[in-house]
Design brief:
The chain is of the alpha/beta class. The protein has 2 domains: 6-46 and 288-381, Aspartate Aminotransferase, domain 1 (Alpha-Beta Complex); 61-284, Aspartate Aminotransferase, domain 2 (3-Layer(aba) Sandwich), CATH 3.40.640.10. The protein has helices at residues 6-9, 20-30, 49-60, 73-87, 101-113, 130-136, 156-161, 185-197, 253-265, 272-284, 288-306, 334-345, 371-392; strands at 36-37, 96-99, 119-124, 140-145, 167-173, 201-205, 229-234, 247-250, 313-315, 322-326, 347-348, 350-351, 362-366. The strands form 3 sheets. The chain has a 7-stranded mixed sheet with strand order 2-8-7-6-5-3-4, sandwiched between helices. Helix 4 (73-87) runs parallel beside helix 10. The longest helix is centred in the last third of the chain and has 22 residues, at 371-392. It binds pyridoxal-5'-phosphate (PLP).
Length: 393
């Protein structure tokens, strides 16, 4: 075939991608082995039945046609109301644009604020697609780790030290995947100060905002930040709708108007019946409370089972769909630990180093399994950790 563009080839550079343990676990499960998969971040339950019914009704009601580029009006209105609740800033429909999932909102945000060669700061540990999303825009970025000892909270001085003359944006994610850290108001205020001092955009990924345990604090609500913050939201986590591919971006109206042109050349509008089902799900908060309670209960079950385990400590793990365990006193090489845990106990977890330096020496455990499975996995971890130490001795 003729040569592909360097743009498309550059999105995912070849080589090790950090998913090796997950792939090995998945291959063994596919081959029929009884593997507990705690490496993925997708719900183990279906979309709430009310949302499914709303979609069936909508598809039967002739919603089969093109839709407005930024989203159908009812959907935009519902998303704006959800953004008002998420960010604490009264939001109009003109300040939101519907996208194909949170990932497309992230893509839109990066495309919107960075030119080829511009620089961004990405606060780590981070969600796996972040580097590729910057590569797709031809932008460069510096990873600034959040220290594990500080519960994976962002450190303003470390971020300041990474600023360059061509820095245009900082990307953060709270509640965080993979660490489960929920950034404190104080740390967010410090980030906001940096953005205002250096005239930067803050890209704030808040797709886990309903799974945070306590009050959700969005940096968009801080003084002077609404005009320079783009918030990434999604139906995937909060409403149990990963496969429906619906998300949205919230920001200043002028920026959202420009972004409608991105939908013109990519999606040309989202599916009509899915848009209506999503609007109804947002208006009625279908499943939101139940899903949040389910993950909170699972987090408690897992953390209770893990606390007191010799040489294993909990870091972050306040919100989102994951728990982060420091296993470095057992085995400093987290990938070796994860492979050995899979081999011995048939449990697949993610090595922390897959998500950046700061999470090295940790494992990320997904809460996307029922409580009894999590209890069983914790029991296996306890057994594994104690025998691992004996072998090492
Ligand atoms: C932090 C974070 N942001 C964004 C996404 C994208 O989610 P989606 O495209 O399903 O909305 C995910 C998915 O796991 C995530 O963990």
């Amino acid at each position: 075939m003729p040569r592909p563009s360097s743009r498309i080839s550059g999105i995912v550079p070849s080589g090790k991608d950090g998913w090796e343990v997950h792939s090995a676990a998945w291959a063994r499960k596919e081959a029929g082995e009884d593997i507990i998969m705690l490496s993925v971040g997708d719900h183990d339950f279906d979309t709430p039945s009310e949302t499914i019914e709303a979609c069936v009704t909508a598809v039967r009601a002739s919603n089969h046609h093109y839709t407005p580029l930024p989203g159908v009006p009812r959907l935009r209105k519902a998303m704006a109301a959800a953004s008002s609740a998420c960010t604490g800033v009264e939001t109009t429909p003109e300040q939101v644009i519907a996208t194909q999932g949170g990932q497309a909102a992230l893509y839109a945000a990066v495309q919107a604020v960075l030119d080829q060669g511009d620089h961004a700061i990405v606060v780590a540990p981070y969600y796996a697609t972040y580097p590729n999303t910057f590569s797709a825009a031809g932008a460069i970025f510096t990873v600034v780790e959040t220290p594990a000892e500080g519960g994976f909270q962002p450190d303003a001085e470390m971020i300041r030290a990474a600023l360059k003359p061509n820095t245009r944006a900082i990307l953060i994610n709270t509640p965080n995947n993979p660490t489960g850290a929920v950034y404190s108001r104080e740390r967010l205020e410090q980030l906001a100060d940096i953005c205002k001092e250096h005239d930067l955009w803050l890209l704030s990924d808040e797709v886990y905002w309903t799974l945070g345990g306590g009050e959700h604090i969005s940096p968009r609500s801080l003084p002077g930040m609404a005009e320079r913050t783009l918030v990434i939201n999604s139906m995937s986590k909060s409403h149990g709708m990963t496969g429906w591919r619906m998300g949205w971006l919230t920001g200043p109206e002028d920026m959202i108007s420009l972004l409608i042109n991105l939908n013109l050349v990519t999606t040309y509008g989202l599916p009509a019946f899915i848009s209506i089902a999503c609007a109804e799900a947002l208006e009625n908060r279908y499943g939101v409370k139940d899903i949040a309670e389910r993950y909170a209960a699972r987090r408690t079950v897992l953390l209770d089972a893990v606390r007191g385990m010799n040489n294993v400590s909990v870091r972050g793990s306040e919100g989102g769909m994951y728990v982060m365990l420091d296993i470095s006193d057992v085995e400093p090489d987290d990938e070796k630990f994860a492979f050995a845990f899979l081999d011995k106990e048939n449990v697949g977890v993610m090595p922390g180093s897959s998500f950046g330096e700061a999470a090295a020496g940790h494992i990320r455990i997904s809460l996307c399994q029922p409580e009894p499975v999590l209890r069983e996995a914790a029991a296996r971890l306890r057994r594994f950790v104690s025998s691992y130490r004996r072998e090492a001795a």
